[in-house]
Amino acid sequence: MLKALIVRFIAAASMLAAAAPAGALSTARLPGWVCGQGAPPLFFDGFESGDAFHREPSYGSGGAYPGAQTRSVAVFGQPRDYYLYVPTGYPFAAPAPLLLVLHGAGGAGTAPAAAQWLRDQWSAQAQAGGFLVAAPVASGSQGSWYPALDYPMFQAILDDVAAHYNIDASRIHGWGYSAGGHVMHDLALRQRSGVPDIRTFAGYGISAGVLQQWACQPPANCPALLAQAARKIPVDLRVGTQDYYYPAVQADRDAFLAAGWNAGDTLSYGSFPEGHLVFPWHFPDTWQFLCPLQRRLD
């Protein structure tokens, strides 16, 4: 029953991706001071014309803050928990960015702990960068993700955070490790209805995740997927040189470059001498890449 549901979801999603118009999407970059580089101009935002920049505030309110917490959303009539971090200093003068964090598949019963651990590991960078972190829990029995059940949950979580906190919808980013990275590629490069997609994310990061696992099956479809993407959505790729996914991530990097992504601009790539692991000390570099990005619906 579950396998049939997943197959139907993937088939329907593929048709939506093929049929939906690309739309007018673009990526903008915010001034460096927004991400802690330099000082804002005098009279910024409202006192002198031309100083304000684009924002999409959700004006949400009523959520607890600051710190780590557990929230729940209803998906297909079932409660689904997720882990949230709200930095000290919230509410801010401007709407806050949001990072959706997807964990890897660690085996039966591991998903809640994996989601909570990643939320906690990202919290130091969230505190420094002034953004919120939301970490969903996978529904699979082996700690992995099922698109038919989990993709709608991601949207419910984004909606819940936006309803209870003042989020800048133009600065929602995604990040995923391993199986979560496979899923994040699939979300961020397609256009679908009812789930987060390329219209949702300003940019995204991948740690030891690959295109061929979810986003383009069979792998020969990867060039077409990237060529048809509605925009060159910025992506940060990281992988250990001893990781079994290392050759595949290198191939992904080359595929992005061949499709028009630009190294150091819309594509960031980093490797390190380790295996299939995620290291929180890489998070500041990932956030430095993501922070200035803004998704525009022109």
From TrEMBL:
It comes from the Bacteria. Residues 1-19 form the signal peptide. The keyword Signal applies. GO terms for molecular function: feruloyl esterase activity. InterPro entries: AB_hydrolase_fold, FaeB/C/D. Its main location: secreted. Keywords: Carbohydrate metabolism, Hydrolase, Polysaccharide degradation, Secreted, Signal, Xylan degradation. One of its GO terms (cellular component) is extracellular region. The keyword Phosphoprotein does not apply. Involved in degradation of plant cell walls. Hydrolyzes the feruloyl-arabinose ester bond in arabinoxylans, and the feruloyl-galactose ester bond in pectin. Active against paranitrophenyl-acetate, methyl ferulate and wheat arabinoxylan. This is Poly(3-hydroxybutyrate) depolymerase. It comes from Denitratimonas tolerans.
